[in-house]
Amino acid sequence: MTEIVLNAIITIGVIAYSVSASLIAIDHRVDMFGVMVLAAITSFGGGMTRDLLLGNLPPLLFRDPFYYILAGISVTTALIVFWIARFLQEKFVAREKLIDQITNIFDAVALGVFATTGAKTVMDFADHAFLTNGFLVITLGTLTAVGGGMIRDVMIREVPFVLRKRVYAVAAILGASAYYLLVRLGAFETAALIVGCVLCTALRLCATAFKWNFPRALP
């Protein structure tokens, strides 16, 4: 797979997570700086945690020039969403349900992107040393996808979304697993990435549309 294709996929994920995180931050009445911070944390927090656990130090965010560009894109996206919301305050508040649906769509796309690209990063680390360790690849791929959102939710004093609603982590596990298995079976990386992204995103959107949740002990 070419570097251009991979970078394009990751960029889409960063934009999608930045949009969804910004909308969530705005809904919690966070100021402009807070919106930028939460967008960046959601976009890069999972990947940084993955790199720390792998011993891939310093994390890619601090040593790959492409990630400097991604950080700028994340902050710029957050600012655009912030100012749109500020200029359209009444419409923004009145259409809260529509905004929530938009947030879920962007979030689902980003979840699929980072679950699969996170798994790829693990498999590529140390010259495929972890290629046969499926548990590690899938776990850290999932962490890449959900880790930033968990940090964001803790910062805004919410129970992390992944622990309470819409089979969130299961979708990320499915995406990372599909990518890992397809690559191990000899599929092209680009095809594996696309299939993993689509499966993860589709499950996440279906869970939202049909309100699929795991059972709780208490109502």
Description:
The mean pLDDT is 88. The protein has 219 residues and is an all-alpha fold. It is 76% helix and 0% strand. It is built from eight helices and no strands.
How are the elements arranged and paired?
Blueprint (H helix, E strand, L loop, with lengths): L2 H25 L4 H23 L10 H23 L1 H6 L1 H29 L9 H22 L12 H17 L4 H21 L10
Helix pairs in contact: 1-2, 1-3, 1-5, 2-3, 2-6, 5-6, 5-7, 5-8, 6-7, 7-8
Work out the radius of gyration: 17 Å
Low-confidence stretches: none
Shape: globular
Helix fraction, binned, reads over 70%
Instruction: Please state the average pLDDT score.
Output: 88
Compute the separation of the termini in Å: 47 Å
Order of helices and strands: HHHHHHHH
- Which class of secondary structure composition applies to the elements? mainly alpha
DSSP, total strands: 0
Q: Strand fraction band?
A: under 5%
